[in-house]
Specification:
Layout: H1 3-6, H2 8-66, H3 70-91, H4 99-108
């Protein structure tokens, strides 16, 4: 009589434990991937907010240095709006949002 025929319950238990361990490893990897995606989204949002802060500071400096040079100020405002739209796009869908809604959503995110 073979070993497997005598100890089939033990072999079945080893197989179940092995499959359980494989399942645990797969679940752990999936959880880490989700955390990595969340961190990547947070990093993209942080980079966008830093760009917005830099562009707003540039706008203030140009306004101060050139008085009321509205052409450059409007160009910078357009860039700021584009970067704000990118920042909000990390969290929500912005395709159907107006410019005012994008600015409000950006402020609602805490910046």
């Amino acid at each position: 009589m073979s070993w497997l025929r005598r100890h089939w319950r033990l072999a079945l238990a080893f197989l179940a434990v092995g499959l359980g361990c494989i399942l645990l490893v797969i679940l752990y990897i999936m959880r880490k991937q989700k955390e990595a995606k969340e961190l990547a989204a947070q990093l993209a949002f942080t980079v966008s907010t830093a760009k917005v802060a830099g562009l707003e500071d540039d706008k203030k400096q140009i306004d101060h240095a050139l008085g009321q040079n509205s052409a450059k100020a409007k160009a910078l405002e357009a860039k700021i709006l584009i970067v704000k739209r990118e920042a909000v796009a990390v969290r929500t869908d912005v395709e159907e949002m107006t410019d005012d809604q994008v600015v409000a959503a950006f402020k609602a995110l805490g910046f």
